[in-house]
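> run fold TIGR02808 family protein
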Amino acid sequence: MSTLESVIWHVLGYAAMPVIILTGFAIVAAISIGLLSLGKDRRID
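> ok
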């Protein structure tokens, strides 16, 4: 593997980690908000 290929794979690897973490956080937050909104009182006065 050339130096350029090595650099590209390292950059992709290090860029993927925060993307995976932030995506997981966003999914968990969306599910939590959805579950919390199910129990919300929907009565309008």
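Residues 1-37 form one domain.
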